[in-house]
Structure formats: structure tokens, C-alpha cells
Design brief:
The chain has one helix at about 30-35, and strands at about 55, 65, 80-85, 90, 95-105, 130-135, 140, 150, 155-165, 180-185, 195-200, 205-210, 215-220, 230-235, 240-245, 250-255, 260-270, 280-290. It is mainly beta and about 290 residues long.
Amino acid sequence: MPDFRASTTSRSAAPCFVARPPAAPRSAFALSALLALGTLAACGGDPDAASSVDSDAPVRTGAQLLVSPQTAPDAPLARLRITSPADGDRFAQGEAVAVRFDLAGFELRVPTPTGDDRGLARAPDGQHIHLIVNDRSYRAIYEIDEPVMIEDLPAGTHVIRAFPGRDWHESVKTEGAFDQVVVVVGDGEIDTFIGPTVVYSRPQGVYEGAQADSILLDFYVHGIELGDDAYQVLFTLNEEQTFRITTWQPYLLVGLPAGEHTMSMSVFDSLGEPVESPYLPVERTFEIRR
């Protein structure tokens, strides 16, 4: 059983790991994040000093995961609800699923204040909704006057999830800003078990130029709590470098070289056991172009 409660682990059995900054990040935002976080762990230091993020020993990837030093603009009134379909709705195989939203306290298709200061990849059409089916990559939704159609769902149970995103794709973590429904396609029984709700969001897609200097890592947690003695999220980069997360907040990946990368996300309970879920673990491939 893996023990993810330890402050630092290393596949190479090194006695400790001090995370060092990558060479001269061009993004001022990434640099400020680096200065704000400092090292992830220190030899002979407090083993709880890096309780929110832990990393394995350095490998060829050479990336670091940093805590974002800036908080996003508050959206305390943001509320999102999936009004259609309803939980338990059944659809014939081949039938498109029309998804309708009720969104309040958050405006779509506008730039997010302070977005220019962050040096992160941004959506050209502004704020949007992240629509996720099962464990697929999210679809950015900018207009909700008309239903959003989901097509070609295979027979079986599917979960539809949604939450608002700022124009640099960071999720709005306000209570009430997330919703999900479970539907079934075909004649089979609906499976209501979906496991703990931890939804992968970023990174995904292609990052070019200065946008590749600091890359948002973000996910959505609903109905559970993270902590040293609670659920924990483990991100694995390129099957080499792992990051243990016990605090739900946005993070930045810095120091990634050009090329294709994979990121997987797993969730573990307080005993270090992987949680059971049809939608975990999840893996994404993204690309860095310099």
C-alpha cells in the first residue's frame, strides 16, 4: 500500500529532494510563483512544510509544481445548475443529449480581470463553462441560450459535469458553482455509483511560446475534502514525476521542455488506498511548443 502521507518520496531512494527553480522563467507571474513557494521540501526540515505539494526526485522532465501566488477574482455569487437532462434520464442509443444550463453571478464571453498579469494561456473568447462527459477532456461553452448537444454516447451510464472557468481556464471554486447529472443510454440498468467527485481540468491542448513557461494545473473537487489525513490527489507527469496534492487550489507547472507530455490524475483515501471510480484514474496528453 503506498503511503502518500510522507512529505517526500523518491524512486531513486535519495535521502531528500530540494526542488530547484528551472532556468530563468520568462514569465514574471511564474517567477513570482517560484519566489512565493520557495522549495517543495528541504533536507532535515519540517516534514510537514510541503504538505500541499510533494514531488519525487528530479528526473529528465525537470518540471516543478508551484502554488499560484495570486488568488483569482472572487465570484461569490456564481451559481451553475444543469437544468436538463435530469438525474436518471434515459436516452435511446444514437439519440443526442441536449444539455441546458442555468448560470447566475458569472458572465460568459468576457475577459477576466487581472488575466493580462498572469502569463497563462487564455481563452480568446473569455470566460466560459467547462463541460465534461465522464473522464473526457472538457468542452468550453460560451453560449447557453441554446442547448448544448452531446452526441454519439455509447450504451451505458454517463455522468455530465459542469463548472464555470475564468478566461485563463481556472475553475470557479465557489460553493454552488458545480453540478453533475447521471444519465443512461440504451436499455441497460443505470449505475449510480460514480465514486468521489474529483474532475481533471487542466493542462490540456497545446501551449506555445511564453504561454508554455507556466502552465495551469487545475481540477475540481466536490463533496469530499482533501488533506494529510483525508483524500489526496496524485498527479503523475510523463510516468516519471509525481506530485501529491492535499489542498484544493490552482497550481502552476514550470520548466517543461518542448514536446508531448502526459499527465495522469489518481485519487487516494486517507489510508493511501486508490479510490474506486469508473472515471479515475484519468490521463491527458498535452504539447509544449517553443
